[in-house]
Amino acid sequence: MSTSAISAGHEVTLQLAQEILKMGGNAFDAAITAHLAMYITEPCMASAGAGGFALCHTPNSRVQMLDFFTQTPLEKRKIKDLDFYPIQVNFGNENEEFHVGAASMATPGSIAAIFELHRKLGSLPMDVLIDPVLDLAKNGVILNTFQKIDLDLLEPIFKNDPSVRNIFFKEGKLLNEGDLLYFPHFADFLEFLKKEKDEGFYKGEIGKKIADYAQEQGGFLQRKDFENYKAYWRPTITAKHFGHEVHLPNGPSIGGAIMFVLLSNFEKFDGNWLKAISQTLQECKSISGIEFQIRNRYPSMAFDLH
Known about the structure:
With about 300 residues, the protein is α+β, with helices and mostly antiparallel strands. The protein has 13 helices and eleven strands.
């Protein structure tokens, strides 16, 4: 195995990624297994209902971004029919309002991402990447400190969803660090993915069930939202930073855009973080402000923030 570095929010996520590398898999294989494992080991951070961005550095030094962000539903419905309500999450020194319910759901991109990543950059068979997670789903995982913190933060959300009470609660109380966390039906889901792949998820039984649930419960999602979903390969934003190139997520990621402006200001103020942050906050007060700063610095860059 060549030299590698793995970052994860749970020890088991890391261990499964290591196993794939030891079997001769590449970084993308390990990332796929780790991502699937996170649905069990780090359920507050990742799920099959989520989306995101993957920065991929290939052996030929090409860097690309896979955009598998969640997609806004294609059609609206009447406001009075919506299942959409606020929940307060206490972060210690402040509360933040989130909205939950069937109408808060968007078309997920995670499953499209792992199969697209595998088709383009993977090396081991997909079954080999799924099987370690299948064993994990059947046996469960011990809740660690970091995941317990996440669980405590999101307790108000889990409390309001009867479908997850048997997973995150025991005898009416939220699971504690050291308790066994497992998802009894997730193994069946993984077996489904092995056979039906992403096509089966988006155009088959699972996409249909989620869309039907959304329509019945006051959400926006329809079957066509799943049938039309696609993950896209996009160029990265490349920042020059003290003689180095830093690749950041392109639009529609707003985080990559803000980091781009911050790194630019960090160099401008000769490494003074306080001045760089202050300047960045002034320049990035709005979406249009962020876009202006990037286009002003690199007018030829392919960039689309929406």
